[in-house]
## 1
Amino acid sequence: MKTVEIKDTAELGKFATKYAASLKGGEVIGLVGDLGAGKTTFVQLLAGSLGVKAAVKSPTFILMQVLETAKHTGAHRLCHVDAYRLKDWDELAAIGFEDYAGEPNTVTIVEWADRVPEIHRFPAYKELTFSFGPGESRKLSF
Amino acid sequence: MRILAIESSCDESAAAFLEVKSGRISRFETLVATQAIHAKYGGVVPEVAAREHSATLPLILEQLAERVTGSSDGRKLGKTVDVVAATRGPGLVTSLKVGYDTAKALSLAWGKKLVGVNHIEGHICSVWLPGAPLEPALRDAKGVFPALVLVVSGGHTELLLMKGYGKYRLLGATRDDAAGEAFDKAAKLMGLGYPGGPAISRLAAEGSPAAYAFPRPLMQDPEHEFSFSGFKTAVRYFLQKEKARLSDPVFVRDVAASVEQAIVDVLVSKTVRAAAATKVRTVIVAGGVAANAKLRSTLASSIAVKLPSVRFVEPPVKYCTDNAAMIAMAAYFRAAGRKFDMPAKSDVDPGWELGR
């Protein structure tokens, strides 16, 4: 596992740009980290790099939103999920998660992925863990 | 005009019947899943009900038919209504589909007009429901418009300029977390349950709102956007330092009151500034967080002092949370403007933004 130190939002933006460039579609990305650790901010920056034009907001309440990415990237859709309010995998499946997750034209990103451990069974699953460092900094492990 | 409306955009499934005669509501029935399920099974509705819509909706419709026509035979209800309406967006795609597809099917089967409603427009239209201050008159609406609307809930925080029924311009929205989410997540950090908004308000009533100075993000910004993500992080850092004091009830009440004051300050000052800039006649507040007593009273007093010629309008508290009555009301205005949808061509729009 690799760990990087992120000083501020600008550095997180650079990381998100590089991360976005590595995505081809079909990936299922789990984000793990406490309230305020930067999960939604990371998704906003990643979406920007993928050319998403719509406003990316926290989907805690709405649970899942599907966003169109720019045509020049491999994936056509970014599926943004928040498992914060979900009790278990069944609830995630019930909202139609498997219609999007793992689809070759879709990058799926799930906040609070540790609430749904069954997500590890996706072959293209990757995880990013956010933790608090000194001051305003964050540590990112992947 | 008689309308059957269905709401299923997120957690709540609901249905309502509304009859409007010459600008007055003459008949009105509304049911949410919680009531329907409780009446039938005495059961508890799960926190995340998105998966439950297809199970609960037939139950709700059956009970509504009984209330409206005295018979659970849906054909009688079908003969009674002129318009079938349902929320078409924004919301969770799977939840929206259950309600909207049901409405499409009923519209086709009964040969009645279909209206797809924007969920946010529904919240706004709750100020025309029975018990609310406005009447749904189509002609003499000039005294109301233009109106500035603050829609504030768990999933939305938006300022809209409303120039007439169905005429909206989005002035600004949250860039990240909604105000209702800021309440919920602050509550979570304080160790209170979900949903946290009502829990914070209860504690705040006995606390000191000036005890702790939490940030007021974008409050002085002349644009009309909001941001509550940094606010959540600030509460987190503060509580990390003061962790030991969370067992002191006075401290918890003071933090709750200070959190509520910070969120309310941002909402109120941005709303008042936008109302002054757009020279509106009316300010409307709507959405789940519009049930918050502190937000209501602060908006009322602030508008009375700073914009004395502007009328402040708030919906009855019972119609602030998601319901189908508000969808029926919004559908009435759309249908009155002949804005119908074609069942075979129309589909849900989970990202539907009002006024953009």
## 2
Amino acid sequence: MNPAFSSERAVAGAGDYEVIIRPNTNWLRIDWRAVLEYRDLLYLLVRREFVSKYQQTLLGPSWFVFQPLLSTFVFVIFQVVAKISTDALPPVLFNLCGLLAWNYFATNLMAASNTFTNNSQLFGKVYFPRMIVPLSLVISNLAAFGLQFLMFLGFFGYYKIFTSHGHTFAMGWSALFLPLLVLHVGVLSLGVSLWMSALTSKYRDLWHLLQFITQLWMFGSAVIIPLSAVPARWQWAANFNPMVAVVESYRYCLLGRGTVTVASILISAAISILALISGALIFQRTERTFIDTV
Amino acid sequence: MSRPIIEVSHLSKRYTLGSIGATTIRDEWARLWSNLWRPPDGKADGASARLEPETKSFWALRDISFSVLPGEIVGLVGRNGAGKSTLLKILSRITEPSSGQAVLRGRVTSLLEVGTGFHPDLPGRENIYLNGAMLGMKTAEINRKFDEIVEFAEIRDFIDTPVKRYSSGMYVRLAFAVAAHLEPEILLVDEVLAVGDAAFQKKCLGKMGDVAKQGRTVLLVSHNMASILALCERAVLLGEGKLLDDGPAGDVVQKYLQAMASKEVVDLRSRQDRQGDGEARLTSFRIESEDSGDLIRSTSRIRLTLGYNGSRPLKFARFMVAIHDFRNTAIFLFDSGAAGGVPEQMPREGFVTCVTDPINLTPGRCYVNLAIFRGNSMSDHIEHAATFDVEADDVYGTGKVPQREEALCLLRQKWSFLGSEDDSPAEPKISSETPAAAGVR
């Protein structure tokens, strides 16, 4: 009657697929297989984010361009007034580059840190690996990153060709590492978001605190004050904040100036991966019974 | 064929009642603070006691075991709160059990709601894919069935219209069409057949029947005994979290209906919390549906039977039954003194009965107060003598049941469009009503 069905059964083979439902076992197992199985849903959710963000409103995408411009404007004034070095780079490029790295991180955090609370209605009605939701947000935010990157390239070109500062910066072969850096930020922000999602599902007011923390975090992430402006004997402390190495690497790759070593970037990567794995564990722990407490 | 496709063993689920610890950092901080300032063995004063988490809990499921063979369609029946939905939620992996385990040997799809994850801004086409994917379908699978789904939902012309402009009927049809075309080995369904108009419901029942013929396994929760009997060979009866019966659907449904009916006889002889002079006492109370003989539904007529016992024959007796909702709002007062019908002289003991018109109440719980008067003096008065549940009924024939939160009473009604002010032709049939949709933000 329905040939498609029977063929699929033959392929799937009833019985080779087994789900065992038990209380709290396997604390340390992350179900990546399930995430992979729902990759079609991941794709559709990313697409849905795009459509709802970019198709419906004109202001949505333009905000992603204006926000870093406004921030840059404010930062430049601050740097001039406080006489903060911009690593001998044109201040506008210095700030746009740092914000390029930072904004993707912060946007991900803001979007994905409230996963359980925002989706409690949906999560009460259908099962799919909950991780798909923050993952889809982190991926769909790449669109905003792309827009900001294009804008950066525009300013880069302008400063290179039309100003006398053209010789102070250069984009070398190291720019090819950019995709890796983006991935790095993605992993770190996903890890932190998973942690925060688990925590905000218990403490609802943490969400407001998070916005404040993110602001503070930015000031300590070499976005406004480069690591080179920090006294040398304090620079080791930057290793505790994985975003410092990332922001400095962005400037090193895209503008040729940055205080970054292989060791510092490796430490940052290690912290990021650790954050993702521990975040995934605590997230999965929460997803098992979260719905009982809403 | 011999190996069960669903194997549930000793499954239990305990819910904690009240607040579970603190829910905000502020509360947590306040609790920590108050604990610091209080000696650990000291008596809790009112304020800090309130900050302690409550540890009351109840078992939504208690030691449930059963197994289902491939191709079986099993109905899950039981009163509200019997644990049916909790069981489905555990099997759908929405929440996990407190103890015990369940093994599912096949791809599972659960249908606890229609239109899960529908996004109002997206057109029907996109929503079919999104909803399908959430229910576990692969994009390739949806591609293959896309035309069939659109055909089934009868929305061909509106496939590229955002679903927020759909009428609620179209919305439900589309949502069900996606669900109906799922092809998992195990399908868990909760009450979703209760949506849509009668014709569409019939179509859905047909579709479910086909599903069964294709050898898939279905676990179905329904309050509609007719659809349980039509679809299932086997049924499982749950009550207060325990498995009460498991067997052929006909027998189990029979048992369920009997249990529902007999439950409504309340023995009042042991009640101490009475008022009145005690010249006559109420001994029993029974409430039942006058129409179908099973559940009391929104439009059922009800029959109330009161047993009484007095020290001597009653003169000018007056029986009163007051029905309240949970806020203690009086809904009805059935008063034999006002309505008449009870003879002036009555024997020392006996029964009186009262049959009403359709009650027209929205589904929910009702509370009963009883009283006997002799002339003007109150002989007996019992508050909260009984409770009963009004079950949902498809009053309007649209499948949309008014809820208790919206209103207490309901009336059949007729709506029509009169014409617009400038007398231009009516708007096309797409209504602007936006059904609530659960969406990922």
